[in-house]
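CORE FACILITY INTAKE
Project code: CF-77B
Contact: R.S. (postdoc)
Sample description: multi-component assembly, two entities in total
Requested service: structural model of the whole complex
Turnaround: standard
Below are the sequence entries exactly as provided by the requester. Do not edit them.
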Amino acid sequence: MSFFGFGQTAEIDIVLNDAETRKKVEHKTEDGKKDKYFLFYDGETVSGKVNVTLKTPGKRLEHYGIKIEFVGQIELYYDRGNHHEFVSLVKDLARPGELSQSQTFDFEFTHVEKPYESYTGQNVKLRYFLRATISRRLNDISKEMDIVVQTLCTYPEINSSIKMEVGIEDCLHIEFEYNKSKYHLRDVIVGKIYFLLVRIKIKHMEIDIIKRETTGTGPSVYHENDTIAKYEIMDGAPVRGESIPIRLFLAGYEMTPTMRDINKKFSVRYYLNLVLIDEEERRYFKQQEITLWRKGDIVRRSMSQQATIAAQRYEGSNPEPTSAQAKEETD
Amino acid sequence: MAEAIADTRRLYTKPQNLNDAYGPPSNFLEIDVTNPETVGVGRNRFTTYEIKLKTNLPIFKLKESRVRRRYSDFEWLRGELERESKVVVPPLPGKALFRQLPFRGDDGIFDDSFIEERRQGLEQFLNKVAGHPLAQNERCLHMFLQDESVDKNYTPSKIRQA
């Protein structure tokens, strides 16, 4: 109808109530570009306004209902038709009728569950978005607004180190050690490689971080490997008894938390690959999985709070914050 | 109290034994292909090369050895390794059949520059192969490098270290 210049059409605009204060983060889109989106956590309320602006003033807009949805869905690139929605909430904004002028509708999705982190990968995408729709006889008018969700963790209670002896019999024996098995995204991998037997001519050694995205189930499982980082840790030939230190700062690399079997649709796992290269370019390697997790931002506490905590932990210490210091530290 | 800065101190390491640190490395293996010599007369001539090996790897029976081999021996070795081991065997320098055709302006396969080119290729080939942990387990490699002559009727087998 609007095709021929007859009838009325409208523009939809979704605005969040806390748009001024809410943090925005960068997130990669499918074609590799980076855009900024509002950041939400699990359990947070999503509320705002839907502004419907009539294009042609004076004319009425007939509709079969106006609604807003909050959707969390997984999209497999090789199966575009099927979106797997794991969160789907609807709020009706207007019953079927007509709008004689531009109007604004309030909405609130209270304490929405957002179980998984937003992810845009090589073969799969998990996204959350608001979608406002004006239903009409021939064609609906709708507008989507993507948001980004991050899942936070606290320090894992158990975080054992990884220590293993590997090698090729009578040729090369090494013992490698990484200080933890679970690292947060801005952590440092501290480790060492200890040479027990070196009967080959090693030229250099590097440690790679590999991201493996797994999609599909059963017989049609597909792995996509991506080397996120290559970091040389040794140049030259080691001998028996030598220890090579590793210190790899993760903050410099673009990584996501480890995602295991998300909604039974996909996984994203990370591996450390230790690679030794000999004089004839032969490669000897050992892969080891690590778990990555996302840490919440550090909460800054006042000196008096910190002192109180310290007093509780260590017997006999006196919490004596000077009043001047306490004043400076309050945020 | 939340950590503001990660602990990046080195992990504990055992101090290295000074004999290990300053002694000879356990990976010493040197192979030279030298002294090409053409033997025979007329159509029955062929060139042999001296293969000198020095090593401290326990898998080699002799720590020093010296043998003479011809190109067809190298071809035999390559064939055996391809069949018996899972190694991707590097190529040999070319067979140069065209050089064996008559009416050439130079000495064909007995030309000095050709022999030198071939010598280099054979040396590269042997160094690549002899340093491979899997190739080192093959009887044929040890026979080629250290036995007086190559017995092409041998029984292929794997070497296990004592």
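Facility notes:
- Residues 22-146 of chain B form a domain with the PX Domain fold (CATH 3.30.1520.10).
- Residues 87 and 133 of chain B are 9 Å apart (CA to CA).
Invoice: internal transfer
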